[in-house]
Amino acid sequence: MMSPNQDDPFLEAQADVLSTLNTTHSLFSSYLRIRSLASSASSPELAQARSELESTLHDLSTDLQDLVDSVRAVEGDPFRYGIDTAEVGRRRKLVEDVGSEVENMRRELKTISSTSSSAAAAAASSSKKPSSAAKGLPHPSAFDPNLQSEGGDDEEEEGGDAYAAFEQQRQVEMMQEQDEALDGVFQTVGNLRQQADDMGRELDEQAGMLDDVDHVAERVGGKLQTGIQKVGYVLKRGEGADADANVPTQRRCRAVAL
Questions:
Q1: Fewer CB within 10 Å: C terminus or N terminus of the chain?
Q2: How many CA atoms lie within 13 A of 58 on its CB side?
Q3: Helix, strand, coil shares, percent, the chain, to 5
């Protein structure tokens, strides 16, 4: 399998796209969090988060299109560019995965936009309806304020129920994402705990080995001390014997001198 050239422009563009994708993920998560906490769709914080997310998605789409064009260029004759079919497949899958993520985030934004637009259109349509007098006979609710208020309450309740259901679904998805993140943290903590246990066992084993070395050193030290004492005793005995042997020799030397 050929290894791609490190100077390949695709690799540099790939690094930029992946970095921008990570930034987009963070902005998208922040947008979902702000949207779940916002009291209304016209919240300034929500509008700012949406604007930043849309701008980053636009930049990511532009960089991704460059990768798509690069993949299409090498698909016809990959060996001409020093890469094999497996690398081409990897690059094609990369752009498809990134494109799918971008499309999902855009679809999520369009869903909210269409919901807000539908609500605004419904409100405008209701305000432009002709009066009951122009149509002939008035609606029965015109004679009973209670019926009129009940109809408005039903519309508001239906809209509130749809928004509440949507927000509840988003909360469930966010809780699932948090659960997955916590599972990863728990797994990491478990691995660290296992490593700590292994290190503790190794330290216990090394401590036992050090104790054995101390005992052996004490025994060897005792034997060395005893050997040194014996050698000293032998040396003293030898010095005494040499002194006794030299007495007659000294006497003969004095006699010769006289």
A1: C
A2: 6
A3: 90, 0, 10
